[in-house]
Amino acid sequence: MKDLEQALELGVSQRKRFNATQPKVWLRNECVRVGLAETLCTYVMMVFGLGSVAQVVTGQGAFGEYLSINLGFGLGVAMGVHVGGKVSGAHMNAAVSFTMCMFGRLGWKMLPLYICAQLLGSFLAAGTIYGVYYDAIHEYCGGNLTVTGELATAGIFATYPAPYLSLMGGFIDQVLGTALLLLCLMALSDQRNKPAAAGTEPIAVGLLVLLIGISMGRNSGYAINPTRDIAPRLFTALAGWGMDVFRAGNGWWWVPLVAPLIGGVLGAGLYKVLVEMHHLHVSEPGDELMKEFDEEAVSLKKQKIICANVCV
């Protein structure tokens, strides 16, 4: 009896010591945790991405070229996934969140939270880059903030179509780019195909964004992300560029807002219909062991029934 009391006291002492070493959880509300993480990871991604554009534009080629922008956004996405991946999934893109809802991977009630967090993170990032590069921007354009022309600076923050691009051509461009993004994201996360190795997901997603940038950025800057485009565009409208940010490109602003939503669903659906739905069942390493265990359990049950009948 004495030994039992000592063992209980030891267990209580160890439990107290374990609880004392556990980190304190400040926020337990899932929505708050997800919202904060999604805001921060979007902010990180956008600061690196917009910062790379600002450096190339204001530096007039002396501090980087178009590839610098591709690398800035690609690596920015990778860092964003590291920041919020385990908490919110680090969507950082309304097209991704919308597509996840369409395919049942995210509850619809969470969509407004994700979109608001992404808008806030993108808006704050635009403000940050404007503050950091304020002097450089005004020195470059002579204090005249314009949307189009040789010294235009609005393109640092939001995307605009090339002069030759029609609205229909730009719409198709954004649908295709986002479709490829979501198609490849589905493949990278498909555990029954060839997913990214554990721990390499951030760099894999970053490389995907880099690939889209270096192959599909010529027409309109590969926005492929509604919240990434509309929030900085709104910031520029308020910061001095005016309503021209919505009038430029024959009213281009709605294309990167709508087309990526359509493209994301099409790309993910294409992967699901052509690949994911046709996976053959692959036995897991423990399947055979569980099968043997079940067979032994059935055999033992039969033996018990036989013994019971004999005893009767």
TrEMBL record:
<dbReference type="GO" id="GO:0016323">
    <property type="term" value="C:basolateral plasma membrane"/>
</dbReference>
<dbReference type="GO" id="GO:0015204">
    <property type="term" value="F:urea transmembrane transporter activity"/>
</dbReference>
<feature type="transmembrane region" description="Helical">
    <location>
        <begin position="164"/>
        <end position="188"/>
    </location>
</feature>
<feature type="transmembrane region" description="Helical">
    <location>
        <begin position="111"/>
        <end position="133"/>
    </location>
</feature>
<dbReference type="InterPro" id="IPR000425">
    <property type="entry name" value="MIP"/>
</dbReference>
<dbReference type="InterPro" id="IPR050363">
    <property type="entry name" value="MIP/Aquaporin"/>
</dbReference>
<feature type="transmembrane region" description="Helical">
    <location>
        <begin position="251"/>
        <end position="271"/>
    </location>
</feature>
<dbReference type="GO" id="GO:0015250">
    <property type="term" value="F:water channel activity"/>
</dbReference>
<dbReference type="GO" id="GO:0015254">
    <property type="term" value="F:glycerol channel activity"/>
</dbReference>
<keyword id="KW-0472">Membrane</keyword>
<feature type="transmembrane region" description="Helical">
    <location>
        <begin position="195"/>
        <end position="216"/>
    </location>
</feature>
<dbReference type="Pfam" id="PF00230">
    <property type="entry name" value="MIP"/>
</dbReference>
<keyword id="KW-1133">Transmembrane helix</keyword>
<comment type="similarity">
    <text>Belongs to the MIP/aquaporin (TC 1.A.8) family.</text>
</comment>
<keyword id="KW-0812">Transmembrane</keyword>
<protein>
    <recommendedName>
        <fullName>Aquaporin 7</fullName>
    </recommendedName>
</protein>
<dbReference type="InterPro" id="IPR023271">
    <property type="entry name" value="Aquaporin-like"/>
</dbReference>
<keyword id="KW-0813">Transport</keyword>
